[in-house]
Amino acid sequence: MKGSDVTVSNVSKSFGTFQALKNVSLDIKKGEFFSLLGPSGCGKTTLLRVIAGFEEQDHGIVCIDDVDVSGLSPEKRHCNTVFQSYALFPHLTIFENVAFPLRIKKTPSRLIKELVLKHLALVQLEAHANKKPSMLSGGQKQRVAIARALINEPSVLLLDEPLSALDAKLRQHMLMELDSIHDKVGITFIYVTHDQQEALSVSDRIAVMNAGVVLQVGTPQQIYENPAGEFVARFIGEANIFKGPILSREGTLNVMEAEGFDEVFVDDEFPVSPGDTIIATIRPEKIRISNDLPKGNHLNVLKGVVEEPVYSGFQTKYIVKVDGGATLTIFRQHANWSEGIPDIEWKDEVYLSFAARDLVIVEKTSA
């Protein structure tokens, strides 16, 4: 396995009175595609810059392959960074932009040509070697920046929101290309993004950050299916939130009195007792919507009125106000042609149903 392990231990960083990082610890494995995900101002870019050596932490250490690099300059850390702005030299050709790091190191010309062409082929730009950056699209410029960062053969590639300047369709295409490049070179990628879908699509693991703190680290599936708290649940995709006290146990399930929903059954994997106040969440695609009353043991069934249906081709999103007064979001996938016909419309009375195991407890707010 190529690449390096990266360990961040109890790192804090302040800018004046603003604390950007608060005792952050992470273990990033060799060869991982690891994403730092969070809203603007959460500290993810500051953490990336601390790992790169562009910022010096106030406390804590950064290790690459168990070597403390905290006091080393960026060029001595065997990391390279790809920035959002591309940072290409406008007066140089694509070939010379990619060759620049090798010329700084006085690499022999024959080897420079071989390595540049190899890396341009890696990002599928060998036919554009003699063009200037102004002649390329945004996605092509970003691939040039990636090739230039990889030509030094770093053990860690740091990517600071590299796709955010691109339009949505090109961003998705570039994301798949980036994942393919990672598979080919096999080094450690640390990717900063505020886009949940980007992180879920390509990451081996994700660290969700907010206000300078790492809230959860896990695989995309773990983060999505079992969020560690209300913030993570709301930030990753769409989530319906239930709050209220546990009333009792019924068999293997908890009975919860949820605000705006009355009583619902909740899964029993999170240790709670009657009297505890909890926060639980369910994803919109796990709720069924129908015109007819569903039946089933320990099935949560709510009645409501469709406030807004939003058709988007592959699915319809329903906003439903239930009898208890709360609002739920439901995604209904169109798996075949007949399901694309709107049999449930605005102002229809409907039934919503979901299994207790899909209503996941994410926080216990009191004992």
What report would you give on this structure?
This protein is of the alpha+beta class and 367 residues long. The chain has two domains: 6-234, Rossmann fold, CATH 3.40.50.300; 241-366, OB fold (Dihydrolipoamide Acetyltransferase, E2P). The protein has helices at 44-52, 94-104, 109-122, 138-150, 168-185, 196-202, 220-225, 230-235, and strands at residues 6-15, 18-28, 33-37, 59-64, 67-68, 79-82, 156-160, 188-193, 205-210, 213-218, 240-250, 253-258, 262-266, 277-282, 288-290, 299-311, 315-322, 327-333, 349-355, 360-366. The strands form four sheets. A six-stranded mixed sheet has the order 6-7-8-3-9-10, with helices on both faces. Helix 2 packs parallel to helix 4 (138-150) and helix 3 (109-122) crosses helix 4 (138-150). The two termini are 47 Å apart. The mean pLDDT is 90.
Large-scale geometry: elongated
Strand % is 35-45%
What is the CA-CA span between the terminal residues? 47 Å
Q: Give the tally of structural domains.
A: 2
Which class do the helix and strand fractions yield?
Answer: alpha+beta
CATH architecture field of the largest domain: 3-Layer(aba) Sandwich
Instruction: Order the strands across the largest sheet as they lie in space.
Output: 6-7-8-3-9-10
* Oligomeric state as shown: single chain
Q: How are helices and strands ordered from N to C?
A: EEEHEEEHHHEHEHEEHHEEEEEEEEEE
Give the overall average pLDDT: 90
- CATH fold-level name of the largest domain: Rossmann fold
Task: Please give the CATH class of the largest domain.
Answer: Alpha Beta
User: Which runs of at least 5 residues are low in confidence (pLDDT < 50)?
Assistant: none
Radius of gyration: 25 Å
DSSP summary, beta strand count: 20
